[in-house]
Amino acid sequence: MKSIIFANQKGGTGKTTSVINIGDALARAEKRVLLVDVDPQGHAAVSLNLDPEGGVANWLLHSVFNTTPLSTEDVNQWIRKTHQENLFILPGNQMTAKVQRLMAIEEKPVNYIRDCLPPLRHMKFDYLLFDTSPSTGGLQEMAAWAADLVVIVTSLDYLSADGVSNFVGMLKLLANEKRWSGKLAGILPTFFDEQTRTTREQMANLESAFPDQVFAPIHRATLLREASAEGLTIFQKDPGSRPAVEYQRIASQLVKLV
Hints:
Blueprint: E1 2-7, H1 15-28, E2 33-38, H2 43-47, H3 55-65, H4 72-76, E3 80-81, E4 87-90, H5 95-106, H6 112-115, H7 118-121, E5 127-132, H8 138-146, E6 149-155, H9 158-178, E7 183-190, H10 197-209, H11 222-229, H12 234-237, H13 242-257
Parallel strand pairs: 1-5, 1-6, 2-4, 2-5, 6-7
Antiparallel strand pairs: 3-4
Helix pairs in contact: 1-13, 3-5
């Protein structure tokens, strides 16, 4: 099982949209995929026409309130099937924010989430995709430390680019001080519009600052907003559309990296 985290320290970058669409692309390639929503907003479930639930909170708090080890049966009761074959989700909700505060109080180490992964490995998922909160804090760092690959999702504006730099700095800190063994898969620009000078400039700035680490961008598309509003992935909405082709390309690239 390979773990991939999608993150930025700024919200509104298209992170959740990217997670569910890349997850669907992998599932359609006959890979068993589990989305883990550690964002308290619970938008991954909503975007798949499911209800936010406290699955992530139950999973992460089990060892805090129970003396028995976390089992596959425990986790399985919190996992939900989506409307796409091979695509599953461990949903989150506002309880996840309370989990983060409790983790801080308990002074849980950075490897805490990785230590909670064995039951998921036994369920034979091929890919574990983390959707994370834009805020900095313990859970984002723990999820990054548990990941084999990191994808930093950024919209093409100054504040998002600043979030990219800060997140790259955090990864370097994890590698140097916490022995993180994963790697940066790349930076995924979203909301790209070649007709807008600002987005072209920000794209050029990213490629200059992070050479050979920037994926081809996801273009701004009304179809993506419509699909999200309808609880569909772009492949369910229009599998032949440009954003579907773009997300399929990213999924194929990630497969080659792990």
